[in-house]
Design brief:
- The chain is α/β, with parallel strands linked by helices and 458 residues long.
- The protein has 3 domains: 105 residues, Probable tRNA modification gtpase trme, domain 1 (Gyrase A, domain 2, 2-Layer Sandwich); 144 residues, Four Helix Bundle (Hemerythrin (Met), subunit A), CATH 1.20.120; 161 residues, P-loop containing nucleotide triphosphate hydrolases (Rossmann fold, 3-Layer(aba) Sandwich), CATH 3.40.50.
- It is 46% helix and 18% strand.
- It has a 7-stranded mixed sheet with strand order 3-4-5-6-2-1-7. A 6-stranded mixed sheet has the order 9-10-8-11-12-13, with helices on both faces.
- A hairpin with a 2-residue loop joins strand 4 and strand 5.
- The protein is flat and about 80 Å long.
- It starts with a strand and ends in a 6-residue tail after the last helix.
- It binds guanosine-5'-triphosphate (GTP) and magnesium ion (MG).
């Protein structure tokens, strides 16, 4: 935090403008040393938070024509002195400006370091800092609204309210512990148990939102599985409505994963086309096949494709084994070439499953597939603007731990175990909730992990 950090905040490429930012004690001084305002105007206190027009110079060398904002602490993103330089958006311009700032004493910022400072300086709580990256990465209107809601402090307020209720119970118990020796204060166990149970209920409701929350945030992790040549890549192209993957009649065309995002009716789908599953001696293809199998273990949805125009073979049966007991939609593809495989044949092997007959070449069944996916991951009953939803697995884990501790405390009180034990559990429950917002001390390693997911310059 002693260092002044600098980074390019806009994505690197060709653009109208690019922004280089700096934050820290010497940011203003370094900014002044490279910026020459038009007409040699003075940079005074009056310039605070105003856009100034001028040029960046490295000694006598002109680097770019720019706008610059000098912003004094504490009313900035990081609550530190900050400077933002708006250059032309060429890769060279932004890099040259950044290099110059580094030459004048700034250090290159780590991923998410600006936001980390905003958190450490108390401008955001941890859940809001995490929402910043979610807003940046949002792929659908729902995930965007959800993260804006969290950024506004929706989750923070909810956790605060849970913590306050927990603190009331905790104080009740502590008073009883402190006065119990002279018998003045007896613990009103029935009230503590009743309040505790209500709190448990509230926590459960929140935890229950996490299934949908993860889908909103990360999308439905979907794997297209099938033996070679059944039409997996054709499906990817059909859903994307562009020729993304190579399609040929040579089995084993796709060897590596192809990953794309699609948005079906506000459900974000992370779609992975895989190498066809088969026994093979080709080393590259073999690795592809192993990866396909690995990925299908953790998928939210498997779209398994079979060729309806040919008898199911041993390889198809292996795939049926893999998808058994997993959330699957089965496609019987190439229906335009005839129907040899009956739906019953699939159902007899793996039980009831959604089966759709398709033709990738004649766009048969694609719409039905899209509707089935939306139905499976229906999000309609959530108000994205106001409902508090757990979309982050770190939050979910902490909530579960907090709930477990509270539940242990209630059990202890109910069974007449000395209340000192319950007090430890209650305190633990309170601490775990605080880790969500960062009010309880959060280990440095956890912070590092959170901010390492950020982009540079945010
Ligand atoms: N007639 C017909 N041909 C299809 C259909 N779907 C795909 N094909 C053809 O089948 C061949 C294989 O299609 P791909 O999409 O490359 O199959 P894949 O499953 O990705 O194959 P690998 O990458 O080798 O595992 C191509 O020649 C496609 O044009 C369909 O519905 N009807
Ligand atoms: Mg393919």
């Amino acid at each position: 935090m002693d260092k002044t950090i600098a980074a390019i905040s806009t994505s690197i490429g060709e653009a109208g403008i690019g922004i280089v930012r700096m934050s820290g004690k010497t940011a203003i001084e370094i900014g002044k040393s490279v910026f020459v305002p038009a007409n040699n105007r003075e940079i005074s206190d009056d310039s605070n938070r105003k856009l100034l027009y001028g040029h960046i110079y490295d000694g006598d060398t002109l680097i770019d024509e720019v706008l610059v904002a000098f912003m004094h602490a504490p009313y900035t993103y990081t609550k530190e002195d900050m400077v933002e330089i708006y250059t032309h958006g060429s890769i060279v311009s932004v890099k040259k400006v950044l290099e110059l700032l580094l030459k004048r004493g700034a250090d290159i910022a780590e991923r998410g370091e600006f936001t980390k400072r905003a958190f450490l300086n108390g401008r955001l709580d941890l859940s809001q800092a995490e929402a910043v990256i979610d807003v940046i990465k949002a792929k659908t209107d729902s995930s965007y609204k959800q993260s804006i809601n969290q950024l506004k402090g929706g989750l923070k307020d909810k956790i605060s309210s849970l913590r306050n209720s927990l603190m009331e119970i905790l104080m009740f118990v502590e008073v009883a512990i402190n006065f119990s020796e002279d018998g003045q204060e007896e613990l009103n166990t029935s009230k503590v148990i009743k309040d505790g149970r209500m709190l448990l209920e509230e926590m459960s409701e929140l935890i229950n939102t996490s299934n949908k929350g993860k889908i909103i945030r990360d999308g439905v992790n979907t794997i297209i599985l099938g033996k070679p040549n059944v039409g997996k890549s054709s499906l990817l192209n059909n859903l994307l409505r562009e020729n993304r993957a190579i399609v040929t009649d040579v089995p084993g065309t796709t060897r590596d994963m192809i990953e794309e995002f699609i948005n079906i009716n506000e459900v974000a789908i992370r779609l992975v086309d895989t190498a066809g599953i088969r026994e093979t001696d080709d080393i590259v293809e073999k690795i592809g096949v192993e990866r396909s199998l690995e990925l299908s273990e953790n998928a939210d949805l498997i779209i398994a494709i079979f060729d309806i125009s040919n008898e199911l073979d041993e390889e198809d049966h292996k795939i049926l084994e893999i998808i058994k007991d997993k959330k699957t939609i089965v496609l019987l593809n190439k229906v335009d070439l005839g129907s040899i495989v009956a739906k019953e044949e699939i159902e007899n092997t793996i039980g009831e499953v959604r089966i759709i007959e398709t033709s990738m070449n004649h766009e048969i069944g694609i719409k039905e597939l899209e509707e089935s996916i939306v139905e499976l991951f229906y999000l309609g009953d959530i108000n994205m603007d106001s409902d508090i939803i757990i979309s982050n697995s770190r939050h979910e884990k902490l909530l579960r731990e907090s709930k477990q501790s509270l539940s242990d405390a209630i059990d202890a009180i109910e069974s007449g175990i000395p209340i000192d034990c319950a007090e430890v559990d209650l305190r633990n429950s309170w601490i775990k909730l605080g880790e969500i917002t960062g009010e309880s001390t959060t280990p440095e390693s956890v912070l590092d992990k959170i901010f390492s997911e950020f982009c540079i310059g945010k």
